[in-house]
Structures are given as C-alpha cells and as structure tokens.
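Forum > Structural Biology > Help requests

Title: Can anyone predict the 3D structure of DNA-binding transcriptional regulator, AcrR family?

Hi all, first post here. I have the sequence for DNA-binding transcriptional regulator, AcrR family but no way to get a structure on my laptop. I'd be grateful if someone could post the structure tokens.
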Amino acid sequence: MNTRRYDMRTRDRGAEATGERIVDAMLTRFASAPYEHIRIEDVAADAGVTGQTVLRRFGSKSELMKATVQRELARIAAARQDAAHASPAETIRDLVLHYERYGALILKTYSEAPLVPGLPEIAARGRAFHVEWCRRAFPVDETLRPRDRERRIAQVIAICDATTWRILRFDGGLDQAQTEVALRELLLPLIDIGGSDAGA
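Reply #1:
Sure, ran it for you. Structure tokens for DNA-binding transcriptional regulator, AcrR family below:
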C-alpha cells in the first residue's frame, strides 16, 4: 500500500514536471513567434514529448496558450507584489527591472489575446491587477477633490504601463538606467510622499 502511494506520488511529480516543460516550451515559442505560427508538434519536440502527450495534457493549442499565460500572470503578480516598497524610488527601480524581464511578453500577450478564445478575459484580469497595484504602490493625495484625484490616479496607471516603458526604452532609445530616471521624473510629482503632495 505504501509502495503504491509512493509510486502514485512519483507519477504525479513526473506528470507535473512534464506539464511544466510543455508550458516552458510554449512560452519560449510564443516569445519569439506569432501565436498563429506556433505548431503543437514544435512545442512537443521542444519539450521532449509527443504531440499526443501535449494534447492529452492540455486538449488544444488554445488551452495550452491559456495555461501558459495563467502561469506567467501568477508569476508576474508575485513579482509585482515583491516590487512594491515603502520608497517610491525603490518601487520604480523594481518596476523597470520587472519590465526588462516581462515587458515585451506582456505587450505581446495583450496584442495577440483576441486570437485565443478565453484569453482576453485572462488578459483583462491582468490589467485589473495592474490598476489595483498602481493604486497601492503609488498612492496619491487623499485631500484632492475626487475628480482631480481620479485624474491623477489615471496618470499614474498610464505612466506605470508596459507601453510607457516600451516607448521610453525602445522608441525613445533610453537605456535601463535612463528609463528609471524618466519614470521617476514622471511619477514622483504625482504621488503623495509623506504628505508633500497635499494641496497640489
């Protein structure tokens, strides 16, 4: 009986590791190719399994894509939680590091989400998390009139967006350090740092 339970746990761990390899392979393919060009056979080969194994595990390419995005969004959310510090400057620094790792993938996921049934809803949850994180990480002056406060919150959310990072980093040609400085210059005048924003 104990041996059977041990064998089942071993099989479960093996199946979990196989699933992770498949998702890793899908993520690597998606990072470098349009979703429509990705073939199950190629993902399977990258993961060291057969196409049938991928289909048995995930059902279809779209379900595999959704599983991949859900896993990465969970990792991104955890990383973003870790990036929120007491110091706004430290939070901005970690936000830039976060986008150096995930920014291109986030933008690509949003742009290709309509191609995958169910993925726009997952992407929308990611956007909702981003908005809430911005509100918590960079609070604005509570004494502002509601309309002014909401406008300022919207500005903070826009500045913290991956699109803004891409514009500064690539369209604007800034390096990582310059991007951090630019975001600091944009954000700090908008947020409440120990009440210094009051009455603005």
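The chain has nine helices and no strands. Confidence is low (pLDDT under 50) at residues 195-200.
Shout if anything looks off.
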